[in-house]
């Protein structure tokens, strides 16, 4: 039997479930609400992502908001000691928030109380999340590539915007073929060896740039494996590989829905760096994704020169924390988080979150004084 907990919000019944306790009708309603909201079909906000995280993160939960017995919202989260909460899959999730039927009004702290959370931390909050945006400490730009009009139309815009970028990248691909061997590309590869190579390259990149190695964390490696085996059309892993002389020289593991591909874990073999195999891979992947019905490729927040060259626009995302006036609430920020996209752990980020905690403490004092 499901270990269901119940709570109340004004006018709402809240069921707290483990992700694997979501019924098929719950998942269907979740997706219907996302469609109704008009939000992009980002795979990180699909129930399949939350369910996969639940298999590797035992503290994962979903608050199901009901009105007259029918779900009107879903809030996925992870719960830590003393009730410190975080976005589901924080550290690797690139789009976060609640899934609410349009018109639903909630108070963030009351929602946290219903979930027995003292705080809730986010670093890639989706735009339009009116419940949580007031608690953000920074707005970030998440570049995207629009390919819904087809790859040819996109390359026309790219040539107009960055004529040298496209010409030079294509020239490097030709040079790679001449000097190394035949170049081929697989958009949705079933190649365990290439995936292992990608993880090794990425781990080396993390260490080289002073970042925590995500693939040294077992839950992340397991999560990638689960999503790579997923057959859910709204959230499944896609491994794209660039080969030269039948050897993988660059690869990317991302998540896709029917219309959105999220750029997630890209890496390349540094022995071939002079050929810019990562950029060659990106262009090939954009072409294949456009042909496969993808309309948007979300490159994720965080600065990178190649993103500026490839993007067609930016989407806003937010980082911050909601804190309740309870023990453990204001003390939950700033110690363990590292932005998934930052080149190094930023002291500025620590200062922002420390400032958020200080403001939260002031707010706690004000609330307790009433």
From TrEMBL:
Coiled coil: none annotated. It holds the Pfam family Acetyltransf_6. This is BioF2-like acetyltransferase domain-containing protein. Residues 328-351 are annotated as: Disordered. Residues 167-308 form the BioF2-like acetyltransferase domain.
């Amino acid at each position: 039997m499901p270990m269901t907990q119940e709570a109340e919000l004004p006018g709402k019944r809240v069921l707290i479930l483990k992700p694997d306790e979501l019924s098929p009708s719950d998942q269907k309603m979740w997706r219907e609400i996302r469609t109704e909201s008009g939000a992009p079909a980002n795979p990180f906000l699909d129930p399949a992502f939350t369910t996969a995280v639940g298999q590797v993160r035992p503290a994962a939960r979903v608050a199901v908001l009901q009105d007259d017995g029918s779900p009107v919202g879903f809030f996925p989260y992870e719960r830590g000691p003393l009730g410190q909460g975080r976005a589901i899959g924080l550290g690797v999730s690139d789009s976060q928030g609640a899934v609410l039927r349009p018109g639903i009004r909630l108070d963030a702290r009351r929602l946290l109380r219903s979930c027995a959370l003292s705080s809730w931390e986010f670093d890639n909050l989706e735009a339009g999340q009116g419940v949580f945006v007031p608690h953000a400490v920074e707005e970030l730009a998440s570049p995207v590539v629009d390919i819904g009009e087809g790859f040819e139309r996109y390359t026309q815009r790219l040539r107009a915007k960055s004529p040298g970028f496209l010409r030079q990248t294509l020239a490097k691909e030709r040079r790679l073929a001449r000097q190394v061997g035949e170049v081929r590309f697989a958009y949705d590869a079933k190649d365990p060896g290439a995936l292992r190579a990608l993880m090794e390259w990425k781990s080396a990149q993390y260490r080289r740039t002073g970042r925590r190695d995500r693939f040294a964390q077992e839950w992340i490696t397991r999560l990638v494996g689960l999503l790579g085996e997923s057959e859910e059309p709204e959230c499944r892993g896609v491994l794209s590989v660039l080969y030269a002389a039948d050897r993988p020289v660059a690869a990317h593991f991302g998540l896709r829905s029917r219309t959105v591909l999220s750029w997630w874990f890209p890496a390349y073999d540094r022995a071939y760096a002079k050929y810019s195999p990562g950029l060659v891979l990106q262009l090939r992947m954009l072409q294949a994704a456009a042909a496969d019905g993808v309309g948007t490729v979300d490159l994720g927040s965080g600065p990178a020169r190649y993103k500026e060259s490839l993007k067609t626009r930016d989407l806003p995302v937010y980082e911050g924390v909601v804190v309740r006036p309870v023990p453990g609430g204001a003390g939950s920020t700033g110690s363990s988080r590292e932005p998934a996209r930052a080149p190094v752990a930023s002291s500025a980020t620590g200062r922002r979150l420390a400032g958020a905690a200080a403001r939260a403490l002031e707010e706690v004092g004000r609330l307790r004084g009433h």
